[in-house]
Write a structure and sequence with these properties.
Blueprint: E1 2-5, H1 11-27, E2 46-52, E3 58-66, E4 71-78, H2 87-98, E5 106-111, H3 116-124, E6 128-130, E7 143-148
Parallel strand pairs: 4-5
Antiparallel strand pairs: 1-2, 2-3, 3-4, 5-7, 6-7
Amino acid sequence: MNITLASPSLPEAVALIAELDAYQLTLYPPENVFSTDLAALPADAVLFALARDAGGAAVGCAALVLTPAYGELKRMYVRPGQRGRGVARKLLALLEAQAPLRGCRLLALETGPLQPEAIALYQDLGYRLTGPYGDYAEDPLSVFMQKSI
């Protein structure tokens, strides 16, 4: 497994993000799918990690959108056939290692209650339940978590 920082506008990154959007729409209504157009953000505000298998195929991705107050984890996705192999942990490890180099010491994320595996992973990695942050509002289909690094 090879995990590197990459551009979210790479064709394989765009394909992974489209798969993520389609998957989330099977779980939540559109108004509860908080997509972010990473390519529309300034390049220095986004850290995008891409995971490739031994053959070079893209199998997962995650992004960290940097703000003055925190870094928000976005667009976390691992293809179903690659889950359970530590890909998500490696993606997060790279982003968590890079965040302090950019002055970011607090990570935040929003996920949904219908993704218990994701919530368990985040908790296992030290993320703690919290309330809404940024522009988010309290919502029964949102789970908010944070981690200081």
